[in-house]
Prior knowledge:
Mean pLDDT: 85
Largest sheet: 7 strands, mixed
Bound molecules: adenosine-5'-diphosphate
Strand content: 15-25%
Number of helices: 28
Oligomer: single chain
Helix content: 40-55%
Number of domains: 5
Strand order of the largest sheet: 18-19-17-16-20-23-24
Amino acid sequence: MDNIENKNEKRTMPLIPLRGISIFPYMVIHFDVGRDKSVNALEEAMVNDSLIFLTSQKEAKVDMPTPDDFYHVGTVCKIKQMLKLPGDTVRVLVEGVNRGRVLDIIKEEPYFEVQLEEPFYDEEVEKDKELDAIMRMVVDSFEEYIAAGNKVSPETLITVEEIEEPGRLADVIASYIQLKPENRQKILEAFEPYERLEKLHVILKEELEVLKIEKTISQRVKKQINKVQKEYYLKEQMKAIQKELGEEEGILQEVEEYKEKIGEIDLPDEVKEKALKEVDRLLKVSPSSAESGVIRTYLDWIVDLPWDKETKDRVDIKKSRKILDEDHYGLKDVKERILEYIAIRKLAKSMKGPILCLVGPPGVGKTSIAKSIARSLKREFVRMSLGGVRDEAEIRGHRRTYVGAIPGRIISSIKKANSKNPVFLFDEIDKISSNFRGDPASALLEVLDPEQNSTFTDHFLEVPFDLSKVMFITTANSLTPIPRPLLDRMEVIRISGYTEEEKLNISKKYLIPKQLKEHGLKEKNLKISDNTIANIINNYTRESGVRNLERNIAKVCRRSAKRIVEENKKTIRVNSSNLKKYLGVSRYRHEKAGEKHQIGIATGLAWTAVGGETLSIEVTPMKGTGKLQLTGQLGDVMKESARAGVSYIRSKVEELEISEDFHKEQDIHIHVPEGAIPKDGPSAGITMATAVISALSKRPINRKVAMTGEITLRGRVLPVGGIKEKVLAANRAGIEKILLPWDNQKDMEEVSDKVKKKVEFVFVKTMDEVLKHALVNEDDNNENK
Length: 785
Ligand code: ADP
């Protein structure tokens, strides 16, 4: 589940409303961007994953569009290139990726950011005759359209004829023909391929009709026009000549401006020399050439970077503690470690040293702690997500010979921070991966190494930029995927998930006040009871952190604000009975421990990168020849562990009252429901063994019991990791008794007293003990129903 939420999470992106164009999936197009808000959106997209959501304005002439002024269905596009043009215009080349619909406007300044509904990729459709027919009709009309002398090259037809997917066919043709904006939008909003083709066909037919009429008229008019046209053509040519002459002057002025700016900055000699050389080059190339655009982009970067700008640190432990407490509930140990870290830096008088790595599931406050650190040190804060970074160039930039090159994301972020000593957060350092285009991890290693990072050289800038004063902090969901050399450089601080009580407190003391303020509401405007908050926690979110909780609270605030304004109310009361009006139907029914004691179904506890999870393991024996079959998304270690369990059972058939020949006469099928995240590790060992024994001996398993532990061939139970997270998950799921390995007793320190009171813990050394607590006698079963 968490994974899906994460996906939604990724679906927020910056938006640009376009004037007079709309973009279809697969379409590659360039256009110029001039409005500040749009340029901001572009920059944000480049700093992240280069994805941007493009939609059309309903009226091209509106200069400062509000959300009502643009369509809410548009296209998610990948930015392929950016080129700075004279003035403040930027030319971008984009490729349409898929349709999307705006669900929510997250912010409107300094650029539009929206949350999108799941991407609308065309579904694979079964081709039938009808679909074939409409495809052929559309291609025929398109051919007619080309033949009518429109500016589409006949080769296009060949490309189009080869397209097999109906939806894509419609999109590609639509992108070639000249259409009225309303018609383009109509096609964009047709999510279903057949419907899209049909609409396109009608529109094409209409266009052809109009073309025919136009043609007759134009022949009539042509004669009269010839003379007028000649005059017009000459005038245009004159204008062009004048413009060229004017530009020459413009360039001289631009060169002066650059020289002045370079003079004002305290640049390292090497950089200054290089920059002045580029300024000279600007004079030698034609002002409207692409080369001149590249030089301008380069010079703008040089003059915009904070070479000589830095903030003064405030190292005051008392103040820092106050700020950390102001921003975060609980997290005592984490705060102490951070304060120690700052104190040591103060004593050592430098910010060098190991890099902090905050590890924990999403939404537990890693990013916001990093922000607090920046606030307490009075430093600027920038964040760069490493999720999905595969290409070294994303970190280190492209060389300038590469068309549309810009610096990598490190330098872009530093520019955004506008200070050479910001707190720089590398988010999701566990999500970088490498491929043939270089190894981003090694580039990062250089950035994080205090010996090397004072001369960090971006491929685009070609001159070193000093990163040694930056304070780097990293976050990760899990430590396992982080390359060893990187990990060695970092000081790990773990933040685990929150219990329901903690979430309730966080909501009351932090999230609700914060959201009220953001929505311009006063405390008295919105009354929301503890029960209702608990209801949101349990039925509208399923997470270790509080990110979705905060989002839901924001939604309640938004709707309340609307009602206050529209209905002229003073106070809105939200309670469990009217919550639906604010949040819709609840998304989750909390997965409570199974309804009845069952044979062959055991509850295990798993630990994944996004927190703890309960996991129900199902076993079905079938007549067969002793095969062991495992399904679900399981790793190799888990399969091994299932085999160990079965071997143990074979050595104990008598005691367990299982047929001696079960391994010859029966196949055993173990299924672990997939969930969103692949699971591996030996910790489901005792759970699988219990489920198999229950299935073979036909004795039911207590539904209120959950367990975790590795099993050996002899039935000993070995300790496992992630106890705190697992216990939290079991508590969420309404488990009453948890079986843990004997050697995990030491981990109980981390478990809060509140949970200890609610759940019974049993520490076991052997499989016998596990069975004693997990299996129920038929008589107990009746009582427990
Ligand atoms: P992460 O970076 O771990 O995914 P975030 O820092 O984005 O999580 O946190 C999500 C939201 O939850 C933020 O608004 C943050 O302020 C809030 N939050 C998380 N933990 C706490 C806490 N202990 N106290 C107050 N607010 C919190």
